[in-house]
Q: What sequence folds into this?
């Protein structure tokens, strides 16, 4: 009996192969993998990413799925740990047999999974991880051509923040305080390089320990003595809130300019009145009048009881970009990759994506300001010199 079953399975597999239908395509559902830090020090961001992607999943399935097939989301919690992410990547490929993956996580977990997915020929779209090694293999010196990023490279987001600081805020003297991790190093380097190129002066660049730093007063005291026009601060919502609160307590009057790590309702909640007037470079414009954006903001709040953030919006887009590619190409990995490479003028929640360059998104950087306890539009940086990723060879 077992031999008959074995021969039958071989026959079925042969039919799939010779008919051009992959086993994945023959399934009743289409599996997409997802991982994020749902617990641990970044749990609020992880939950936001998961909630937004599940909202997108519901919308896709309510509309009939992908060509009549239901989309199934396979969710894992990486806990912001690289070793967890490695195990998750292998499970998604070998056990779950997904056709593509969405990362709703930070740079650390996302960059360690990139070579695993790349080797397996598995398309992944990262929502917001900023490290260059997500789309680039530093050992092989070549592009991870199955990896795509909906968020900005850290250097680009930092450069956009500097563009706004010098050209719009007229800052001339700037101090930098940044977390000592992939995210902080990349984004602060981009800010410093662009600010100096535009004629600004970077007075100091201080890095603080992450995770664990809670007292920023020694760093801020030095900054106060420097008397800058502007402080560029890089951190996630907990650190961001502590920095702006403690800066206020020390009587610092300089404009604080942050980045997407600030972009969370938790930042405004934890910082309290000190958040007012803080400006950030990010990936979501809450005042974008397009129905796509306003419906998302309304539906997210109705579903979860709080405002959406950049993390959620970016992860939503990452999922929908992958779904769009599967709709065009089917479930074959190489065909999905080709569809992603050919993305043009995609109308995303976080802005119109003109194209991908070696997996890196090309779209404007949004500038938001905290006004009356909410993020509001302060501007946009769309200078091609700033937002176009450098081509690597």
A:
């Amino acid at each position: 009996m077992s031999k008959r079953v074995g021969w039958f399975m071989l026959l079925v597999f042969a039919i799939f192969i010779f008919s051009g239908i992959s086993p994945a395509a023959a399934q009743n559902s289409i599996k997409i993998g997802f991982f994020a830090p749902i617990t641990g020090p970044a749990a609020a961001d992880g939950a936001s990413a998961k909630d937004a992607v599940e909202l997108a999943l519901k919308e896709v399935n309510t509309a009939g799925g992908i060509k009549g097939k239901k989309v199934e989301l396979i969710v894992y919690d990486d806990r912001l740990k690289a070793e967890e992410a490695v195990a998750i990547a292998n499970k998604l490929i070998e056990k779950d047999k997904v056709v593509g993956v969405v990362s709703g996580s930070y740079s650390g977990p996302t960059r360690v999974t990139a070579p695993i997915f790349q080797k397996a020929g598995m398309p992944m779209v990262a929502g917001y991880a900023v490290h260059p090694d997500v789309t680039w293999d530093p050992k092989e010196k070549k592009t991870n051509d199955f990896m795509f990023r909906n968020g900005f490279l850290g250097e680009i987001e930092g450069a956009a923040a500097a563009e706004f600081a010098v050209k719009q805020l007229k800052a001339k003297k700037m101090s930098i305080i940044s977390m000592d991790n992939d995210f902080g190093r990349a984004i602060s380097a981009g800010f410093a390089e662009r600010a100096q190129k535009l004629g600004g002066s970077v007075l100091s660049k201080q890095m603080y320990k992450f995770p664990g730093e809670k007292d920023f007063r020694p760093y801020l005291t030095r900054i106060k003595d420097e008397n800058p026009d502007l402080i560029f601060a890089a951190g996630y919502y907990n650190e961001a809130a502590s920095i702006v609160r403690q800066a206020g307590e020390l009587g610092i009057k300089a404009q604080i300019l942050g980045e997407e790590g600030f972009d969370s309702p938790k930042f405004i909640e934890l910082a309290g009145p000190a958040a007012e007037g803080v400006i950030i470079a990010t990936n979501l414009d809450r005042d974008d009048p397009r129905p796509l954006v306003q419906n998302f903001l309304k539906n997210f709040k109705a579903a979860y009881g709080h405002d959406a953030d950049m993390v959620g919006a970016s992860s939503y887009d990452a999922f929908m970009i992958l779904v769009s590619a599967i709709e065009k190409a089917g479930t074959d990995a190489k065909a999905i990759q080709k569809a992603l490479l050919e993305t043009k003028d995609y109308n995303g929640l976080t802005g119109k994506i003109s194209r991908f360059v070696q997996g890196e998104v090309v779209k404007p950087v949004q500038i938001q300001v905290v006004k009356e306890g909410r993020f509001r539009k302060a501007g946009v940086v769309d200078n091609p010199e700033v937002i176009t990723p450098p081509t690597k060879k």
